[in-house]
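Hey, can you fold this one?
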Amino acid sequence: MAFGEKGGLRVPPLGRRLRLGFVGGGKGGLVGEWHAAGARLSNHWDIVAGALSSNPDNAAASARDWVIGPDRSYDDWPTMITAEAARADGIEAVVICTPNWTHFEIAEGFLRAGIDVILDKPMAISTEQADALVSLQQETGVVLAMTYPYTHHPMVRQARHMIADGAIGKIRQVHVEYAQDWATAPEDPGFKGAAWRRDPVKVGRASATGDIGTHAYHLLHTVTGLDVAELRADFHVCGAPKAMEDTAFVSLKLSNGAPGLLWLTQAAAGNYCALRLRVFGEAGSIEWDQERPEYLRVNMLDEPERIIVRGNGAGMHPAAERLVHLPRGHGEALTDAWGNLYAELGLVIAARRSGKTLAEGQAEYTDAKGGAAGVRFVGRCADSHEAGGVWLKLT
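Sure. Predicted structure:
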């Protein structure tokens, strides 16, 4: 039996949970709560340390909420690195869920300290920063993993493996859309996250494209196995006036020659979190909708429509069944996808730290190169828009 296969996805392979720290994610940080919930649900991690906020009072209050001892609640991340690296029971990995412009410096510090890094997207705010992190990860051999939770839904994994197995034949076209509406109305002065998401110094050259377009690009690449060869992008402001785009239309030429479309917006009134993927092949199509994550719609030419429901058996691929934890009819949703993400990263990091090798396909996650690819995609979209919407090669 391969390392980590005994007992299922939520069984820590070392017979204990790994020690996890957080930078960011304290009170008022919704994304941090998602990460923490996923880590706890996975059963692979104990959250034992953190620099949870740049505000010391908030950091201390958040540590109390998370039951982190005061001796391991830090006012800043450099102090955390020094203290945890010196402890025999120091953290084995760190989650970085701070605003975009801080990712590079913090990740660099922990990688150099030999602490495995779990990094919220996007990896960095420029391709230069992203490439530097890839080089540092290769130099140190430490894990640098990105957190794209949508691809850890069982039905996304199902779609990926059905397509890889040739279920719909050669891919002929792909459509991805991600529609939200929170940027439709004038910005709320109290919403600090909106302000920095419109500041190019803090997010780079794209706003909505970096914020949610990275998810759309990653979903397309992960499920189809194809990359983008060329693209042309147009940025727009479709909601209340603002300094950077809230909407983008991106035309794609995929690596197999097929066309694709990516539409993303944070100003589509009446939408919530409408991430949708449609893949059309020569023999049929597969569709997945993030707001209805337990269902996969499969339509083959001249056959009745087929809906595959998340669960065990009844058409589920073994690679997708690994991510299933409840019988059909008992809902699993985004929190469970976060749990699957942290379980798979638990396997990856436990294997590295114990000198073991995982079996092929045992853990599917996004590594440093995958993170850099997302940053490069956003940068090329900005290049295309700034040049008047011209076609550009991705690399």
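Residues 112 and 140 are 7 Å apart (CA to CA). Let me know if you want another pass with a different chain boundary.
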